[in-house]
Amino acid sequence: MPQINRQGTVRFGDAALYISEEGLGGSWEERTAWGKKFKREVFARIIQQLNRIGWTVGPWDEADQYKIIANNHRTCSKGEHLHALLDLSGRCIRLEMWQSANTPTRPDHKGRYESNKEAVAPYLLRLEMERTRRRIRDYLCNVFIGYTFEEQSPGRGSRRRGLKPPTAMEYLNGCYSESWHFKGDWQAYRDANSSPGLSSCFNSNRKSADGKLLEHGQPVYFFDRKGRAQTGIAHYNINNMWWVVSGKYAVTNEASFELYVDNPGDLRCKRNKSLRRKRLESELNAAVARMDYRRAEVLRDLIWPPGEPVFCLWHTEHKLYHCAGFSGYAAEQMDAGKFTRAELQGWAKAPNQIVALGKRPD
């Protein structure tokens, strides 16, 4: 039964839980007192609930670096692959969860910065994340009289995962209903952009990878994040971005230059050169870290031609190395991306500096 009178809203995000309240008005002393009470009554209760359902909650990992805000952050984990960050900022609390078992595009930071955390999470880990935030939501809404759960519409901010996710077309219709740019009426949109001053921009936003002009609702070919050929129906989104519906629930957001009107050919061949390179370099770094030099030698010869010198790329402003594919940064040379001279063309200029393996930057 509710016992505490607080007004607030609970929302779900992508593997995340958000709590927000109103009440930061008044003098500095009043705001400070309100913040302390908010932390004591809500933030502390969330920590208590996490401990009850098997999570380990401890000090923030970055507390030494950001001491002034460390007391409002907690690092959480459950098992080997499930991680979370609980933080309080003003009148808002956020519980952000992620997993390190499957990180196809962002293996750095244990997968924290994957763009679609729920979509890439293994089934059981996704269920555990869902269970965690539902338990906390139910607890808060029962304890606090004025707490409500804000359901998400099937539009742009909705979750694409869950027990009853919206279908692809429901999701698109929700996006169009919320959009100020395109409402789903292709003919009206074409007419509005048919003037000489707008037509060139309009046509460039629908130019496909094979140089054709895309039409709203037409079949297209594209390649997913793993480089596998897919087919679907293209629906216009905004600028040069297009929704592609490839199943009852499957919808992705692709740029026009990633779509093909005609068959691109060799559909059984993956276009995953960049992803392959990142994975091989990751395996190479792991082999070196555990001193498995025979495996490291095999992987090295798979990545670069034998005898080809390789280098790291140091960012002089960030004081960090570029990772493989020039995506992200690493503090240690062992975790950094390795590149040939040819691959570094165009990057060998300020604020970057080419560094030979085993050497330190200037």
From TrEMBL:
It holds the Pfam family UVR. InterPro entries: UVR_dom (IPR001943). It comes from the Bacteria. GO terms for molecular function: nuclease activity. Keywords: DNA damage, DNA excision, DNA repair, Excision nuclease. Residues 278-303 form the UVR domain. One of its GO terms (biological process) is DNA repair. This is UVR domain-containing protein. It comes from Microvirga lupini.
